[in-house]
Amino acid sequence: MDKSIYERPLQMLARTFRVDGARWGHFRNLAEVPLFVDSAASRMVQLADLVAWSTFRKYELSDGRFFDPLIPLFDADGGVLHGLYHHRRMSEHCYCPACYSRGRVQPVGQA
Ligand SMILES: [Zn+2]
Fold this sequence. Notes:
By secondary structure, the chain is mainly alpha-helical. It has a domain of 38 residues. 34% of the residues lie in helices and 4% in strands. The protein has three helices and two strands. The chain has a two-stranded antiparallel sheet with strand order 1-2. The longest helix is centred in the middle third of the chain and has 19 residues. It binds zinc ion. The site of zinc ion has 6 residues, from helix 3.
């Protein structure tokens, strides 16, 4: 993650998860702790920022200019995109790449 004012609260949250668990119980296999780095010093963090910003613009502002060229770069297997999941209201139709590739265009619960 890019260095920000959220570093300390997120580090404390991760520590709480590791020690106390969460509502789902204890986590036995946390792969890593949140790592913070100044994005000016890391191209990978800059790339992650770009992908996150592009995804935000696509889903929150319906602006796919920067996100749409990234779609073919997501891992896919059998036509299903991996690494992109759209958490949406159950009553909404959605034809975004994540929902469409999973056949989830209808409101949840309707076929
Ligand atoms: Zn969707």
